[in-house]
Here is the input.
Amino acid sequence: MSELLRPATGFRLAVVIPCYKVKNHILNVLASIGPEVERIYVVDDCCPEKSGRFVEEVCTDDRVEVVYNIVNTGVGGAVMAGYRKAISDGMDIFIKIDGDDQMDPSLIMDFVSPIISGAADYTKGNRFFNLEKIRAMPKVRLFGNAALSFMTKLSSGYWELFDPTNGYTAIHRDAAKQLPFEKISSRYFFETDILFRLNTLRAVVVDVPMDAKYGDEVSNLKISKIVGEFFLKHMRNMSKRIFYNYYLRDMSLASIELPIGLSLIFAGGCIGFSHWFDSVQSGVPAAAGTVMLSALPIILGTQLVLAFIGYDIASSPKRPLHVARRVHPARSLRQDP
Here is the structure.
């Protein structure tokens, strides 16, 4: 059916599956991938269970090809190894699913369709569309995803997206080829870091509703170990994105609003703290005019920062890269922050 579907869509589909300690699930995942997919790349990320060798020995699907990482690079490194292979083989759209059987391969065309129609460069799953189904999600994951989603909105600039750690994704080759693979986080920050990189390319990203499955799989992610690391990386990406989009590549009214707003908030806070400290030391309450002297800059600064955020929300990328490249094939869109 893949040979029949490809001429109809004009796109060659490839699935990338990073494998690390998923030997008990990988065959079931492979068996569930439909005939619309032309190539399947199983990336053995130096798996201690030798998942790649196991697949080569047992799987009879001639679409499957095993890619070996000599050292363990993490999920991001494994996915990028699969992307490189798909690019070299001339695939058009790369769908990434995990090997632990949490993601339903029957949804592949749901992820691919927005890219084929020219509505997106990159699609990702969102398990929060159906409010009834998210009751099945563990409460710790629910809270963690909500917090990470807010931080990702700040750092990536994709304010309309949710569930940033969702690993069910699809990407067009034109967007993948422009990604700086050597700079993207290779481990658990991969899903959110790639969103930041895509925003610097002005790629269009769309959420795809999906349900989560939780079985007997064992997560290798320890929330307590990555909270601090994720926070620092989000702050770094947010700073780089704002500098790149609002000062290096372009200038707008928002470029003025942000520094003035932050300066006013800082100045008002310093003035207010200074007078509060003097008041505590002397025991004399601050005069109304003194209070307003500190409150007014804070109020004005907050309004300017909110105006910047409103502009940032409205400036999310709207035109997919692969559509723009068809219109201007000689134009280089890569920006390497």
